[in-house]
Amino acid sequence: MAKQRRGMLxxxxxxxxxxxxxxxxxxxxxxxxxxxxxAEEVRDSALREKLQVRAxxxxxxxxxxxxEELMKEIQEENVRRAEAEAEAQAAENx
Length: 94
Prior knowledge:
This protein is of the alpha+beta class. It has one domain. It is about 45% helix and about 25% strand.
């Protein structure tokens, strides 16, 4: 049976804000701030680089319910972003 990949809860262990420009979305974490990331994002090279230099750390794997909520939030954000881009494009075409 294949092991299911899980998202993670990460934390900014730095004394300054940390920006992570992942392929799926940009993240900005203030010192001490924690955020959930998806299983796909765990493998992102930008995130891995921040882990290597210890700017962020992994706190724990996400729970199933946290992961479901995160996916819902990301989908809603993507819809809002697409709507804003469509509005900007329409305004530009007027």
